[in-house]
Each structure stands twice: as structure tokens, then as C-alpha cells.
Amino acid sequence: MFFRMLSAVRRRGAWASLTMGGLLLGFGFFASAGLAAGGFSARLAGPVTAQVERVVDGDTLQVRALIWPGQEVRVLVRVAGVDTPELHGGCPSEQDLAHRARDFTIHFVGPENPIDKASPPDAGRVSLQDIRHDKFGGRVLARVSNPAGADLAAALVGAGLARFYRGGKRETWCPETQAVINKDENG
Q1: How does pLDDT run across 123-135, given as a tens digit for each residue?
Q2: What phi-psi label fits residue 38: left (phi over 0), alpha (psi between -120 and 50 degrees) or beta?
Q3: Is 0.85 topped by the overall pTM?
Q4: 129 with 43: CB under 8 angstroms?
């Protein structure tokens, strides 16, 4: 249909009025129609290889993901299935635990941005699976594993630095706050 429309425009001598923007708009329309028809999934199974640029906190990484040969994208990745304490949490014990979780994640993924020639070739490299949009814009949610195949979420929970999380309201990491909540709930 698009090419018949293009041919009709050309026959009328109005070819010059059809701009590159119009062509792109036309192709964009057909591409979005393909998305609406289920041509693409909102979830990417992976694995996608990524280089860790920095560890933001225990459950968030900034990576350069290799999405196509010679094509990389920088993105924040939230580790799926877990919640770690916040670095700017509500109490000193949460902040301390948050720093420990971040340090654990740094060691788990290996050196970030290795510039030392003695570093192993996979230093700072992770694999992303089951990639999808996060509820907060600007980042994705994914399962993260290191080159040895170990899962970051399971390792954090196993070390006592994270809780399983399936969405909804986060539980507090502050023991004092939890004691008040328990007292209110039990009357």
C-alpha cells in the first residue's frame, strides 16, 4: 500500500514535495503497526553480554550492553527479584548494610573498567537475561550473572544483603522502624 501511494505521488509530479521526513514518517508508521501486531516482545530472553561501568548500589549496575556486533548501549540495570538496602537509607544500620551490599556486588562482578593488562579478559563482564522495562523509566530489570554463571540476586540473598522482592511496598531495613510497625500491628 505504501509503495502504491508513493507511485501515485510520483505520477502527479509532486515527488519533490515528498520529503525524507515524510518517508521516515511512513516507514515509522509501518514499523509501529508491526509492534502493535505483536511483531516485537517487551521482554528479551538474552543472554546479552555487558561490561560493568559502575556499581550504583547493591542491586543496580550501569553497563555497556553489546546489543549487536559493534553496537553498544549504556543502560542502568536493576537486578531482578531482590531488594537491597538504600545507601541513603532511613537509619545508620540500613546505610551500613547498603555499603556492604554494594561492595559485595563490586566483588561479585569483578573489577569495573579493567585497565590493568593483568586483569582477566572477562573482568567486569556480566550476562543479562530475562530483560524487561523497569517500573521506573531510564533503566531495565534483568537477571544478572557473572562469567562463572553465578546469579547475583541469589548470591546477595545468600549473603544476607538482600531480600526477595516481587514488587509492591518495600519492607524497611531499619530494625527500630520494624519494631514500631510490629507494635502497631499487634496492638
Answers
A1: 689 999 999 988 7
A2: left
A3: no
A4: no
